[in-house]
Amino acid sequence: MFDAVQINPHSRLMTQARPTLRLLTCGSVDDGKSTLIGRLLYEQSLILDDQLAALERDSRKHGTDGANIDFALLVDGLEAEREQGITIDVAYRYVSTAKRSFIIADTPGHEQYTRNMATGASGADLAVLLVDARKGLLTQTCRHAAIVSLTGIRQVVLAVNKIDLTGFDEAGFAKIAADFRRFADALDFKTIAPIPISARHGDNISSKSANTPWYRGPALLDYLETIDVVEDGATRPLRFAVQWVNRPHLDFRGFSGTVASGTLRPGDEIAVAGSGRLSRVARIVTKDGDLRGATAGDAVTLTLADELDIARGDILCDPKNRPEVSDQFAAHLIWMSDGKLLPGRSYLMKAGTRTVPVSVTELKYRVDVNTLGELAAKTLSLNEVGFCNLATTTPIAFDPYKENHTTGAFILIDRVTNATAAAGLIAFGLRRATNIHLQGLAVAKQDRARIKHHQPAVLWFTGLSGSGKSTIANLVESGLYAHGVHTIMLDGDNVRHGLNKDLGFSEADRVENIRRIGEVAKLMTQAGLIVLCSFISPFRAERRMVRELLDGHEFIEIFVATPLEDCIARDPKGLYKKAMAGEIKNFTGIDQNYEPPEAPELIVGLDNQTAGQAAAQIVALLATRGLIDHIDDLAADWSI
Known about the structure:
Layout: E1 20-27, H1 33-43, H2 49-62, H3 72-75, H4 79-84, E2 91-96, E3 101-106, H5 114-121, E4 126-132, H6 139-150, E5 155-161, H7 170-183, E6 191-196, H8 220-226, E7 239-249, E8 252-261, E9 263-264, E10 269-272, E11 278-286, E12 289-290, E13 294-295, E14 299-304, E15 315-317, E16 324-335, E17 346-351, E18 354-367, E19 374-375, E20 385-398, E21 409-413, E22 420-429, H9 445-452, E23 457-462, H10 469-482, E24 487-491, H11 492-495, H12 507-526, E25 530-534, H13 540-549, E26 555-560, H14 564-570, H15 575-580, E27 602-604, H16 611-624, H17 634-637
Parallel strand pairs: 1-3, 1-4, 4-5, 5-6, 23-25, 23-26, 24-25, 26-27
Antiparallel strand pairs: 2-3, 7-8, 7-15, 8-14, 9-13, 10-11, 10-15, 11-12, 11-14, 16-20, 16-22, 17-18, 17-21, 18-19, 18-20, 21-22
Helix pairs in contact: 10-16, 12-13
């Protein structure tokens, strides 16, 4: 939502419609971004008298320029921003001149709020990157330049601010400009315009300054008024993402959405990107009547000549120029979460109007924002940028971000907190999925289950180390085996001697540990087995991931809820003693968190329940669910 300054109705600038330029101001902390925007508003007479009076009062209270007006306060609207002298949120401002209108996104400079800066960059055509003339390029300057490039901005103004504090030093300005050009050689910028400015005093903002006779370029505003950054979306291939299937009555079925690129006319042939099915546009419907055509940016409802299976999230396209459809692709991720990226963990991917589960299958490298080099990494932390391979649970249609910002961008959502975890920019598809197809099997899972006289299932035992998971699971398997039930036991310690011996105990390794076990358990259910999995599995996200791999009735989560103090008292392997002495790192319950199940199928281990009693309870649940026949003598076997 735009937070616009009120426009002075008496200004000479309100006389005609003008092409709009969306620009971003960014840079390190205290480089003068907010001051620059405030100065522009002031010099274009876009501040009402009462706002100016309030600004003068605020300058006396919060200002940093003595008795002079502190223009940064006009933009820094949050009290926390004014008190700290920094921008926290993305603030949008509207500026209009005789030649052009601007929407300016003032973004935070502090590293902590880099994710806010990336949000502002995603909708901009041009970036004004500010640099303090006294400090030169900083780490945050480089980080912002890299993110600006990743988000598709190709025009950059390098505004070397506070030039007055260096005595309008030409050599210092030239060095900063040269340093930035060297750094930006690896970035995909079309134009870089270095301009020496003083946002506080107005040098080279709206007009050329006499203090910089050595500078022969335009003032900042002159440059912004004349630069052409518009890319004609109508000339790109047709992309129309269905937002809503519009069915007000039985005689009308339309598909509502916004044309992301290209043009449409009634009679045009159209394809559904995912299925490849073809039809023609019958009507282009709006609330004001049918249109003869629609182009990029138009929100319309389409009706087709044929009845096709189309749902929210599908992309309609030009049959001769389709997007790629795949369940694997490579992308840059700008990590926006306080929690780290964990490859193998299931996230939600929201791409356009479609949301699908996705996981990072491989983190190829982390980008060093100082050198743009590629660094080996196993995870990403807040504000870091990485290049990854991702896999979705179902194929999606997309274009590389460089070709289409709308169909090439996505966000990752944490499935537990529902918070945005990352912004993603697709680089290219991984064509592995086109070469690999599921092989049809002559003998199905249910055929194998039929000869075993029971149904397949995964019994997932979760709980702290020492809670009794393996003891209870062994009892259950022994009882089932004795009565002819076909089982297999997967124990956390045992698989780390073979399949997962290459994994440690970091969060990323624990996620991969459970991902592998989940896939193995799924294969074993295909064999018709009851699979008993005994793993601490501390994270809800991975337990959910395993559940989603299986048919709905096959996953049974059993929480062995033995309290931590009891587990420490038992300490059968002496692990808690070592962990509390600092000899074992990342030990669940001590220095790594355990997320208990929120809705398990069964909770055991409470109220001094014995292992035998817990095992009998589990077997009774299997019988109740119809997975096995009733076994009446197990209680006697376990001396209950």
